[in-house]
Amino acid sequence: MQQLTNLKEIETAVNQYGEVVVRKNNKNDVVVMSMEEYSKNILRKEIIKSLKKSEQEIEDGEGIESDEAFKKLRQKYEYEV
User: How many CA atoms lie within 13 A of 33 on its CB side?
Assistant: First the structure.
């Protein structure tokens, strides 16, 4: 692993690799990444959380048929097909 010694090197590495792991006392301590990459990671986590919740609702019998869901959405947003 390459050692980075200053902020400019870290910035260059983030631009090249998307993220940089900073080690302290021979342990991974901090991750530095661009705001764009951070936002993508947050969005991915939110999508996964929503999918898991939806799967649980289906298993619990709480879901509705897709036709009914789309009908409700069309009514809510006043959209005609």
Answer: 14
pLDDT in tens, 3-21: 666 888 888 888 888 888 8
Q: Could you give the C-alpha distances from 29 to 17, 36, 72, in angstroms and in order? A: 18, 21, 47
Q: Is residue 15 part of a domain?
A: yes
In a domain, 52, yes or no: yes
Range of the domain at 38: 7-76
Asked if 36 contacts 44 with a C-beta cutoff of 8 angstroms, the reply is no
CB neighbour class for 17 (10 Å; exposed up to 12, middle 13-18, buried from 19): exposed
Q: Total structural domains in the chain?
A: 1
Query: Is residue 2 domain-resident?
Result: no
pTM of whole model > 0.70? Answer: no
Which phi-psi region, left, alpha or beta, contains residue 80 (left: φ > 0; alpha: ψ -120 to 50)? Answer: beta
